[in-house]
Specification:
Blueprint (H helix, E strand, L loop, with lengths): L1 H6 L3 E6 L4 E4 L1 H7 L11 H4 L2 H17 L3 E9 L5 E12 L5 E10 L1 H27 L6 H15 L3 E9 L6 E10 L6 H4 L1 H4 L4 H8 L4 E4 L5 H9 L4 E9 L2 E10 L8 H17 L5 H64 L6 H32 L8 E3 L1 H18 L3 E7 L1 E3 L2 E3 L1 H17 L5 E9 L7 E9 L6 H7 L8 H7 L5 H11 L2 E8 L3 E11 L6 E3 L5 H13 L8 E4 L3 H13 L5 E3 L2 H13 L6 E5 L7 H10 L6 E5 L4 H10 L3 E4 L4 H12 L32 H12 L1 H13 L3 H17 L3 H15 L3 H21 L6
Parallel strand pairs: 12-15, 20-21, 20-22, 22-23, 23-24
Antiparallel strand pairs: 1-2, 1-5, 3-4, 4-5, 6-7, 6-10, 8-9, 9-10, 11-14, 13-19, 15-16, 16-18, 17-18
Length: 838
């Protein structure tokens, strides 16, 4: 529990009855700017400004006085650095054995990011509403100035600026010189003279504005960042920062809107620039009535879509907050249970490890080592449950669908769980009903994990009687698909309906007494259901108190006509277990030259012992550079290692770099990665570096020896000369469709015209890049960045923005890569509209 208490990112604390701190975790102490041991005995008035301390004291006093827990309390707190954060807190009274209140415990979570996100969402929604209203108003008035006054006032208020101005281009008839003329002006200050309004539009020094704005590039940022000629003129008006949005009509630069901030030096966000660009489009269109309808359609459609997204985001945020509040109680109970669960095996491991230092008989030593091994396995299963849940919720677990034999998977599970059932004198069996497919398409590793959890739970919660696993084909919701059911039935303690529903929740078992009696994290069933759903299936449960339970996993295993069915003889599991045990105990003696590259001395000793007992005495390397040099030297001397076991995280040179260098120098022997990262993406990274296979840590002896044996005997797939697979060239473009679904023929025509023009647009981009005209590449990609998102192609906007920045900063190589990616997306957009491939 101490480890959990100190390692959590949230702020945890204990206080005594006088509301002085007894203990805090590391995260809270760091935020307070204190050493963790210096907080004990302090009050909130010693640690916080008086206002914050008084607020904290009120919350604590209510808990001590009322004797009830309270959660979901929000409020601001000031840290040691003077920064104020928004917090969400939960407090619970602490009682002694007699039930007297002796203090309280608390959990404080930083929700500043959520608060700021809500404020940004609110500002963005207001801004979109104003732009939408402005667009609607401009279409029904003959004189745009009737609506601009109100619209500019609202825009100025939301943007928190002192002035908003509208300028248009003009040409001096005598000299032919172009300049800007003020068309409309809104200000929160007293109206300046007409001469001051026109000052920077009529004077020289703003030639750059015309060039930048005509290319569709806004002027954005503090005045101090502008060229001196502009800075001097703007400073005379007291402007600290500004945002200038260009207006184009019929692809011609018409003028611009200028937002002036007189108090704050800042740069406006891309979102603000994007939304205000929509306002600029509407205003420009209002001065050219023949284009007003099209401009309004795009702005209105985009506004509706974004408003819906904002509403969904706000709804999700509120739902998340409510769910987090409900989850707090479960997590508190979970932490208490986990404290016991983790301390129990740790106590055994530490205690028996100390006893091993005493003089012992061989029988005692074997007994103690077995106890340490079992406690370690139990502790590892607890950690694996927590890590699995974290990876699932972070979206980092991928399902790997392969052809597998359901009979073999089930037999493997039965063999593994047979000993646990025999230890409790339970009748344990498996039955295959009817015809069973010889092969199904599934993730066999995850299927095995789910079945082990279901069978393990059944054995755990059954003290007398039987546990049976039944496998059969069954009908499902789609008549064109085949479904397989794996049902685990027990005669255990059973559950009522409410307890059954809770059993599928995170961190929960039927009730608190279940945790105390049987142990466990309360995560297994939740993880299993999530994995089942990721595999296209689900888990359901039926249970009756004091009678027993049945949990059924149902998987979609593909079209029925593709399955080869046969009848499986019904066997008792004892026979299966005997066969499996005989197979496992059959010793295998290996021979060959193995290089073990591992920087951890304990891991190196353990893996070396596994290999030695299988007949192999490995050579060692303690870092990637040593592994590279030893392997290359041995190969050059004609004594190449048959297998290299390569830890991927080592000092000086990691395993990825060492493997790449070996492959680049023609090394062709098998290299097996050892990595603590076990996702599909991590596996692919190892293979891309040139490894032939990988083993996830902690290393299981059977898996290690099985993989090493496979490559020593030539059954493995070695990497080709030079390393990984050859480059297959640019990816085939996928079809990309616009997110602006509409039945309006006019809008559909606009999108189709845009997509049809992408071929010429891409051709112009590629010509400009080939001619090394990066400024032209930057200009064109900026145009596409604006139009792509507006027409429902955010991917084009994102990739065009990357290309624009690379070209703008003269990074030719990066621009080339970005252009290649953009070309693939453009082809995908054309394919999505039914246009022929380029």
């Amino acid at each position: 529990m101490d480890d959990l208490f100190t390692s959590l990112d949230a702020f945890l604390f204990y206080k005594d009855a006088r509301m002085n701190y007894v203990a805090v975790n590391d995260a809270f102490a760091r935020w307070l700017g204190r050493e963790i041991n210096s907080v004990a005995g302090k009050s909130d008035y010693d640690l916080f400004p008086e206002k914050d301390a008084a607020w904290m004291r009120r919350q604590d006093r209510e808990i001590i006085t009322r004797g009830e827990a309270r959660s979901g309390v929000e409020g601001p707190l000031t840290g040691a650095d003077g920064k104020v954060i928004w917090t969400l807190s939960t407090r619970t009274p602490r009682r002694n054995a007699r039930g007297d209140i002796i203090g309280l415990s608390g959990l404080i979570v930083d929700i500043t990011a959520r608060k700021q996100a809500e404020e940004r969402l609110e500002q963005r929604e207001k801004l979109f509403g104003i732009v939408s209203k402005l667009s609607r108003d401009l279409i029904v008035v003959s004189d745009p100035k009737e609506k601009l006054s109100t619209a500019f006032e609202m825009l100025g208020d939301v943007m928190d600026v002192g002035r908003v101005r509208l300028y248009r281009n003009a040409t001096d008839k005598k000299t032919g010189q172009r300049y800007f003329v003020l068309s409309f002006d809104w200000t929160v200050m007293k109206d300046p003279t007409g001469e001051k309004k026109q000052r920077h539009s009529m004077q020289s020094g703003f030639d750059r504005w015309s060039a930048e704005l005509s290319r569709g590039i806004p002027i954005n940022g503090p005045v101090t960042d502008l060229p001196k000629s502009e800075r001097v003129l703007l400073a005379q008006e007291g402007i600290e920062a500004l945002l200038v949005i260009p207006i184009h009509v019929r692809n011609e630069f018409w003028g611009f809107i200028e937002f002036d901030d007189y108090f704050t030096s800042k740069t406006y966000s891309d979102t603000e620039v994007s939304i205000l660009s929509m306002a600029a489009m509407s205003i420009g269109g209002s001065y050219m009535r023949d284009q007003l309808f099209r401009q309004f359609q795009k702005a209105y459609a985009e506004t509706r879509r974004v408003n819906q997204e904002l509403e969904k985001a706000i709804e999700s945020s509120n739902r998340f907050a409510a769910e987090a509040e409900v989850a707090n109680e479960a997590k508190t109970s979970f932490l208490a249970g986990m404290s016991h669960e983790i301390r129990t095996p740790l106590t055994s491991i530490v205690g028996f490890a100390e006893l091993l230092q005493d003089p012992l008989t061989d029988e005692e030593r074997s007994e103690y080592i077995e106890t340490i091994r079992k406690s370690g396995e139990h502790l590892l299963s607890l950690v694996n449950d927590i890590l699995d849940l974290s990876k699932i919720e972070a979206g980092k677990i991928e399902i790997e669908m392969l052809e597998a034999s359901p009979v073999q998977v089930v037999n493997g599970v039965v063999s593994m769980m047979q000993a646990a059932a025999e230890k409790k004198d339970l009748e344990f069996g498996v039955t295959f009903l009817g015809l069973i497919p010889e092969k199904i398409r599934t993730d066999p590793t995850r299927l095995r994990q789910i079945l082990i959890n279901l069978v393990g739970n059944a054995i755990k919660f059954t003290s007398d009687g039987k546990v049976f696993l039944t496998v059969r084909m069954r009908p499902g919701p789609d008549a064109n698909r085949a479904y397989m059911e794996f049902a685990v039935t027990d005669t255990g303690i059973g559950m009522n309906r409410a307890e059954l529903e809770k059993a599928f929740n995170k961190f929960e078992q039927a009730d608190a007494s279940t945790v105390r009696r049987f142990g466990g994290t309360g995560l297994g069933l939740n993880i299993s259901r999530k994995l089942a759903r990721m595999m296209g299936g689900d888990i359901t449960g039926e249970s009756q108190k004091n009678v027993g339970s049945t949990f059924a996993l149902v998987l979609d295993v593909g079209p029925p006509l593709e399955l080869s069915l046969s009848r499986v003889e019904e066997d008792r599991l004892n026979d299966i277990a005997d066969e499996a045990q005989a197979e496992e105990t059959r010793p295998e003696i290996l021979s060959g030259r193995v290089l073990l590259a591992e920087d951890g001395p304990d891991n190196r000793r353990l893996l070396s012992l596994f290999l030695k007992r299988a007949g192999i005495i490995p050579d060692f390397a303690e870092n990637g550079r040593e592994a590279y040099e030893k392997a290359l030297s041995a190969a050059q001397m004609g004594k190449a290692y048959d297998v290299i076991l390569m830890d991927m995280q080592m000092p000086e040179m990691d395993g990825y770099e060492a493997t790449r260098l070996l492959r680049e120098n023609g090394y062709t022997k098998p290299i097996i990665a050892l990595t603590a990262h076990a996702t599909v993406l991590d596996k692919n990274r190892c293979l891309e570096a040139g490894c032939d296979d990988y083993i996830a840590k902690p290393v299981n002896r059977e898996r290690l020896l099985a993989i090493v044996s496979r490559y020593l005997t030539g059954d493995g797939q070695s990497a080709p000369d030079g390393g990984g697979q050859p480059d297959s060239g640019p990816a085939e473009p996928e079809s990309i469709v616009s997110s602006l679904y509409s039945e309006d023929e006019e809008l559909d025509s606009i999108i189709d015209d845009f997509v049809a023009g992408l071929a010429d647009f891409l051709n112009d981009l590629e010509k400009a890049f080939s001619a090394e005209r990066l400024d032209e590449v930057s200009r064109l990609s900026h145009q596409l960045k604006g139009s792509g998102g507006a027409l429902g192609y955010p991917r084009l906007t994102e990739e065009a923005g990357i290309l624009e920045q690379a070209a703008k900063h003269g990074k030719s190589e990066d621009a080339g890569k970005a252009l290649s990616l953009l070309a693939v997306s453009i082809k995908g957009v054309r394919r999505g509209r039914g246009h022929p491939d380029l």
